[in-house]
C-alpha cells in the first residue's frame, strides 16, 4: 500500500531532514551528502526510499541527478490519511459522494 511506504519513509530522521532541505530547493545527491555526516551512496539509498514512496522526484541534468519534493503527493497522502482517521470525515465523504451522484443524474 502506498500509505505504508510513505510512513516507512517518514519514520527515518535523516529522510525527514532530506525532505526539509528539498522543501526549499532542488538539490543533487552531492549537495545533500555535504549537509550530512554520511556518504553519497547512503544518501542515495534514503532518496530511493523517498522516491519509491512518491515523496520526491528526480531529474537528470548532465552528470548530476537533482531531487525535489513532490508536494502534491505528500499533501494528498497526508490529507487522505487524516480523512481516514478523522471521526467527522466519514459522514462528510458520504455526503460528498451523494452530491456527486445527484449531479451525475
UniProtKB/TrEMBL annotation:
**What InterPro entries does UniProt report for this protein, alphabetically?**
ArsR-like_HTH, HTH_ArsR_DNA-bd_dom, HTH_MetalResp_TranReg, WH-like_DNA-bd_sf, WH_DNA-bd_sf
Cite the GO molecular-function annotations of the record.
DNA binding; DNA-binding transcription factor activity
Whether Transcription regulation counts among this entry's keywords is yes
A Pfam family matched in the record: HTH_5
Key words, A-Z: DNA-binding, Transcription, Transcription regulation
Q: Where is the HTH arsR-type domain?
A: 1-89
Q: Which SUPFAM superfamilies match?
A: Winged helix' DNA-binding domain
NCBIfam families, alphabetically?
HTH_metalloreg
Q: Which PANTHER family match?
A: TRANSCRIPTIONAL REGULATOR, ARSR FAMILY (PTHR33154), TRANSCRIPTIONAL REPRESSOR SDPR (PTHR33154:SF33)
Name the record gives this protein: ArsR family transcriptional regulator
